[in-house]
Design brief:
By secondary structure, the chain is mainly alpha-helical. The chain is built from 22 helices and 6 strands. The protein folds into 2 domains: 159 residues, no CATH class; 289 residues, ABC transporter involved in vitamin B12 uptake, BtuC (Orthogonal Bundle), CATH 1.10.3470. The protein is elongated and about 100 Å long.
Length: 540
């Protein structure tokens, strides 16, 4: 075993020397067929020498050959002509040109674990010197930060001009220098890594800070130990700050969903006084409308499938609003002023809609894929802000703005506000309250459909989708104040953020119980919620 390790270190050192030699020549050496000849040998030492020689060429052909060797695609003929097996056939290992006709006899170049490790190290080095910045960045993040790779890291740093890649290389070099026998090098590495937010760097620094008593007898090592401990504390403070920032973003994302769900309830419950237990199924209908729009685009407009969401938004609103208006005309209009009956009736409607969707689409969840422009996210240190959640937050803000404009700047909004504050007086003024009820219920249901469209972008769509949000949305409406948009916004944001900050400490279920208890206690002191609805009917 020791012999194998000494061999690996020797080859790594030789490879580092060869890479450093590349700095004295103006351009990379060209890969020659003779450099690959020893790969056909049965001796491990010959193959190891060939790998070092190929790596020293430092060009794209050398990287292609080594990647084929590592992947088991490098072939050799009896006359030592090297080929690479592709899905389209055999190509020449150096020129990349197709081989036609293919030779009758060839065999795969086989390597053992020792040669595999050497090849991986050589590939990492060649990728660090690639012309493509994306390849260099990936290689800089993936390279093993060991002291054996220090010459290679130094060579890459001397040639690198892209700041992001230089930072990754400098970090890898500093991690490697943590194990240096020179305390000065260790202190310099600790100073470089003190600004990191990588938990792996924190673990390396913690291991260094826990030095033995023998190390602490040396003043230089005691200083290294103290610097490492201070760096660990700095990283912990930084990680805690980013953790709080991540929780706030997650809470804002949850709040945006709760806001969309609760907006519809804030209109219907505030105007009609109907405890609509079927509002969660409006979310489900909107989500399935989004799924059907996606399927239509996949089947009939495959080249424009990335834009299905643009059409799914109005589709989900219209379908959910139509279902809500149908329910209002057929069931709910006969139960106004009878809260218990409306609660039971809407609960039965929700069960009916869930079972109807199961019969049509099946009981299993269906997948709604994100468009390509919503995939990925913004990376900020060790945090990732997904694009789909950012879009949902912006979408919730846009819907809120449109609802506010509708209620405050349109004739329908004036009627809704009038009926909400004093239905009898509005009717005496000639407002057709029955029609306002119908349109308001359709508006609230349509907003629920928009919430389902948004939810489809962050999870699977199933028949029970709405059941997970109906209770939380009622809590938002009651806490914010019935019929109050501003109160709904504050309540949704508060519930979303507070729940995400509490969950890591007490768990998800206890958090929901605690929030429910706090809301009940608040309602006992302030029954009208955060923002009381003002009007003659309320004051009477």
């Amino acid at each position: 075993m020791r012999t194998i390790l000494r061999g690996l270190h020797a080859h790594a050192a030789a490879f580092g020397v060869l890479i450093c030699l590349l700095s004295v020549v103006p351009r990379a050496l060209a890969l020659e067929p003779a450099a690959m000849a020893d790969l056909a040998s049965d001796e491990t030492s010959d193959k190891a020498r060939a790998i070092d020689t190929i790596a020293a060429a430092g060009d794209e052909e050398a990287l292609t050959v080594l990647e084929a060797l590592l992947g088991g695609d490098l072939q050799v003929t009896p006359d030592k002509h090297f080929l690479i097996k592709r899905s389209s056939g055999l190509v020449d290992a150096i020129s990349g040109s197709p081989v036609s006709p293919e030779p009758d006899e060839y065999d795969k170049v086989r390597i053992n674990n020792r040669l595999r490790a050497q090849t991986e190290s050589a590939i990492a080095g060649l990728r660090l010197l690639s012309r493509d910045p994306a390849v260099r960045l990936e290689a800089a993040k993936a390279i093993d930060p060991s002291r054996d790779n220090l010459p290679l890291l130094g060579k890459a740093l001397s040639r690198e001009s892209v700041p992001e890649i230089r930072n990754a290389l400098r970090k890898a070099e500093a991690v490697a220098n943590l194990h240096s026998p020179d305390p000065a090098s260790q202190l310099a590495a600790i100073e470089t890594l003190a600004g990191s937010t990588d938990p792996r760097v924190k673990a390396d620094l913690m291991a260094l800070s826990r030095s033995t008593a023998k190390d602490q007898e040396s003043p230089a090592m005691a200083k290294v130990h103290e610097a490492a401990a201070d760096a660990v504390k700095a990283i912990e403070r930084r990680l805690a700050m980013y953790a709080y920032l991540g929780r706030f973003f997650t809470g804002a994302s949850l709040a945006s969903v709760l806001l969309l769900v609760a907006l519809g309830l804030a209109i219907t419950y505030g105007l009609l006084g109907v405890i609509n237990m079927a509002h969660g199924e409006m979310l489900m209908i909107g989500a399935y409308a989004t799924y059907m729009t996606q399927q239509i685009f996949r089947d009939h407009f495959p080249h424009s499938v990335d834009w299905y969401l643009v059409f799914a938004v109005p589709t989900s609103f219209v379908i959910a609003a139509a279902v809500g208006m149908l329910l209002e005309r057929t069931v709910i209009r006969w139960l106004y002023g009878r809260p218990l009956e409306t609660l039971l009736a809407t609960w039965g409607i929700s069960l009916f809609l869930i079972q109807l969707v199961r019969q049509i689409f099946g009981a299993q969840n269906v997948e709604v894929a994100n468009p390509s422009w919503m995939s990925g996210g913004i990376e900020f240190s060790n945090l990732v802000f997904p694009y789909n959640r950012i879009v949902i937050i912006a979408f919730s803000g846009a819907v809120l703005l449109l609802v506010w404009l509708l209620l405050s700047r349109t004739r329908l909004g004036l009627f809704i506000r009038g009926v909400t504050q004093n239905r009898t007086m509005a009717a005496c003024m000639g407002v057709r309250t029955g029609r306002v009820d119908l349109l308001a219920f359709g508006l609230g249901s349509g907003i629920g459909g928009l919430a389902g469209c948004a939810l489809s972008q962050i999870g699977n769509v199933g028949p029970d989708l709405g059941q997970s949000y109906i209770i939380d949305s009622f809590m938002v409406v009651v806490l914010g104040g019935v019929g109050q948009l501003l109160g709904t916004v504050y309540a949704a944001l508060g519930l979303g953020v507070v729940s995400k900050f509490l969950e890591p400490y007490i768990g998800a279920v206890p958090t929901k119980i605690l929030i429910l208890v706090l809301i009940i206690a608040f309602i006992q002191k302030r029954p009208q919620g955060l923002f009381a609805l003002k009007g003659r009917a309320v004051e009477a």
